[in-house]
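Re: your question from the hallway

Yes, I did run it. Sequences:
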Amino acid sequence: MHQQVPILKIDDFWIASVQGSLHDQDVIEFKEALLNKIMQPKSRGLIIDLTVLDVVDSFVTKTLIDIRGLAGLMGVPVVIAGMSPAVAITLVEMGLNLEGVDTALNLQKGLDKLRNAGKER
Amino acid sequence: MEQEIVGFWTDSRNEIIGKCIELSAKDAILEPDESYRQNREQVFEHLWSALLQDMQSDTMAKTGEVVGSLSREAVRYGRNVEPIQRIIEILMKSAEEAARTKYREDANRASRIAGHIKEYLDKTMIILTKSIIRAQAEVIEKQKEYLLELSTPVIPLLDGILVLPLIGTIDTRRAKQIMDNLLNGIVEAQADTVLIDISGVPIVDTQVAHHLIKTVQAASLLGARCIIVGIRPEFAQTIVKLGIDFGSIVTKNSLQAGLKLALKWHNYELRRVGGGGPDASTGADS
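Structure:
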């Protein structure tokens, strides 16, 4: 499968770092791949890193919300990390807010958030 | 007709400039003014040659350039613009007098030339007025930019805590600027808590509230939590009356209360070391 987004594992956490903008088909593939990964046992969390992403559309946003919902059903918390100001402004201007999705400033803070969430459980 | 004035203008150059210098030395406005004392002759010559070119080409382009740069300079350095007006008047007056002396025997011709000169005087004056207005508009525009930059500081307070004090009326343009500044500030400082102090915002209407909510949402997308502080009774009343949903936004009445909450989120503890009040020698470390 042609993979646009590498999905890596650190400890029990999955990290997907989105590199550049994605086409709709890539987004769908990305979602499938992601869900397959977190299905594995010992998945304690998922971080989607958007640091290098500078453009988003509504489909990507919808998919992010979807992933959050699906992963939630599987009991895996999701954190979106490193969103850039431009992307945040676009989302807010479009009236799309990632209601209920956890966010973090960078990968480190995202990991900390997931670790803390794990402890509380 | 046009050749007549061009010919006169070229032939009488020395008379005109000489007369200008003579007149300006006695002038009540030009003489006490410092700005053109050194290079007065040059300015007259500039203007003279610009007018000559324009008479030949029948436009006002060159004069516009010279007058424009004079007035821009004057406005930028906050000088009086009256001397420029005076210089133009003196040049035209000198030209008229030169014409009257030159064509003493030919009264018809003298008055024709004088009429041309008057025409050019009027045109130049209009150009002067326009260029002063334009120069002032440029200055105002620039000041507006400076003011915008000044008016939205993002202050790093503690590791990971930013303060954004908002002062003055917030319109759409400023709101955009505020959002940009804040988001960049958050990324730069990698801060995850922002205190937005709105006690300096005099009027809060739906627009302002909308902008505030958008700013808070954008910040939370980045992963920073916002606390809106300094909410006055009127603001609270407006929000409730307008039915704006502030539900998911953390608000506090004062900056102190907000700071306490932020410190708690960051697991900081604020306590006094030793007893008593403020001590200048130990500083205000907490």
